[in-house]
Amino acid sequence: MKTKTLSKNFKSNCITYAMVIIAFIIVQIMEATGNLSSLLRGLLVPLCVYVILAVSLNLVVGISGELSLGHAGFMCIGAFASAFFSKAAMSSVTNEGLRFFIAILIGAAAAAVFGILIGIPVLRLRGDYLAIVTLAFGEIIKNVINVFYVGMDSNGFHFSIKDQFSLGMEPDGVMILNGPQGISGVTKSSTFLIGVILILITLFIVLNLIDSRDGRAIKAIRDNRIAAESVGINITKYKLMAFTVSAALAGVAGALYSHNLATLQASKFDFNTSILALVFVVLGGIGNIRGSVIAAVVLTALPEMLRFLSDYRMLIYAIVLIAMMLFNWAPKALEWRERYLGRFFRKAAKEGR
Length: 353
Prior knowledge:
Blueprint: H1 2-32, H2 38-64, H3 71-88, H4 96-122, H5 127-146, E1 149-153, E2 156-160, E3 174-178, E4 183-184, H6 192-211, H7 213-223, H8 225-230, H9 235-258, E5 263-264, H10 271-284, H11 289-305, H12 313-329, H13 331-352
Antiparallel strand pairs: 1-2, 1-3, 4-5
Helix pairs in contact: 1-6, 2-6, 2-9, 2-10, 2-11, 3-4, 3-5, 3-9, 4-9, 6-7, 6-9, 7-9, 10-11
């Protein structure tokens, strides 16, 4: 029975990977044949960013069962940590690819550290209290970054919370972080290929964690905390594990995002970004990783692709949101999916054997 379950999960995971790879191949074919519009080309990297963000948040909301509203804060930390390194190391690490690779690792590590620091006290809370505290964390991070001014010259780094003129740098010094104006001049290293690779790595980490012994412990805590604790599952350990992995992957999304912009500002990581990620998770199906991928792609690309409809595009967007919500959550829709789609997949599984 266990072997059959593992085989079923493996097949499901392979379908998810194949879906991403096929989408990448289709985009490459469209690019080669000249059928890829400039609008869609500009959306490719943001699509990858939001897919990673949605999948990472689903690990906390769907698998761990905790409501987090500060996911944009971890994305912000990853974005600024990676961009800070790229700008500071531009002269010392001349290889752009290597610099970007290190920047991604730094962004993930910085977000993971904050995930641990925030998670240890915060994960003792539940429900609305956890949501409020994570929301406050996201807003605090954004505002703290806005007050910092950092420059670099031959004497090292200079810090100030007043303005850039109080840094006391030499004339040949380089301004790295300029308060609310953020970080500018970072090399645009993000590409669609790198984004797809990072999506596949994110899916591999999350899906394998879910199917592992640790993942089953996390889901047991979500389903019944008291029962899980009674059989010896360390509640704090596993909740912190999910929260930290989720934060690190959000940091990766932030690193990819920051290297796709001419200027990176903390104001871009506001409450709306966290809510947008939560919308992807809810409409794609809480706990459904593949659904998060699809929802992130559809809901990011749809408003831009409907711009030619002018006044009606947001109406169509709202209708799609309602349709996705009904399909995923309405009792009748669930009954229809179980009756017809469930029968189809069970028949396919039998024929496969």
